[in-house]
Specification:
Elements lengths: L11 H14 L11 H8 L3 H13 L4 E2 L5 E2 L5 H22 L5 H19 L3 H18 L3 H14 L9 H7 L3 H20 L3 H31 L2
Antiparallel strand pairs: 1-2
């Protein structure tokens, strides 16, 4: 079962929702995974009711889907949906990353440097789950520095849909289709992060925006290709 973690008893519904959101954002669930309410309740330490309510909220937000058999699952996005979400993310996340230059602290920039190092290590160790968690922390550390709270909330809704798809990065389909060395994988997944850090250090808003947009666009293009391969593979089963 997924390592989501227990919640406190007060405001249980909100805490369960937050835990499930974090798991989706970090790619702890993959496309096609089904949400087993009783097992999730046991993992987070609650009764089934708050889990059921949180899942209904996530269905309403389109982070999850209700299947014809009433099972709730992580959606399997199409190539077109990935491309559309990439366009949205590039526009919105580019804006807030540029705005972050105005407010971001030197301490946060230092933390981003350490996150970048840790992401390199995660790729070297083929630890996709840790890489995805660190990647989420990296991006949202920048976005939250913009103090554009309403826009950041919107970005989170978008990430709830794409987070699970990030599992294809460094997965079997990635390795089979690219046959790249670890160094090339690291360069692909981390070089734009390093450019963003350089832009933040020099307070160059346009450099930061371009780095984040390039990161989103390049990963989006690769994900669209990998998703199409995965769908074709599933259809042959």
């Amino acid at each position: 079962m997924k390592n989501i973690g227990h919640v406190e008893r007060e405001t249980v519904h909100e805490q369960v929702y937050d835990k499930l959101c974090e798991a989706l954002l970090d790619g702890q669930f993959a496309p096609g995974d089904t949400m087993q309410i009783r097992k999730l309740a046991a993992v987070v330490g609650t009764s089934p009711m708050p889990v059921r309510d949180a899942l209904r909220t996530l269905v309403a937000e389109r982070a999850l889907v209700l299947l014809p058999n009433r099972t709730i699952a992580v959606p399997e996005l199409t190539q077109m949906e990935i491309q559309e979400l990439t366009i949205l993310r590039s526009a919105v996340e580019g804006i807030v990353s540029a705005k972050a230059v105005e407010n971001i602290s030197d301490t946060t920039i230092d933390n981003l440097k350490q996150l970048s190092v840790s992401m390199h290590d995660a790729i070297t160790n083929s630890d996709i789950k840790e890489y995805l968690r660190l990647n989420r922390v990296f991006h949202f550390s920048i976005y939250e520095a913009s103090e554009s709270h309403t826009i950041v909330d919107y970005i989170k809704l978008t990430w709830l849909r794409v987070g699970p798809v990030f599992n294809y990065l460094l997965g079997d389909e990635w390795k089979a289709s690219n046959k790249q060395s670890t160094k090339k994988e690291t360069d692909f997944l981390c070089r734009n992060h390093e450019l963003a850090i350089e832009g933040l250090k020099s307070r160059d808003a346009e450099k930061v925006r371009q780095a984040i947009v390039a990161d989103i666009a390049e990963c989006g293009e690769r994900l669209a290709s990998l998703v199409e391969k995965q769908i074709s593979k599933n259809n042959k089963k």
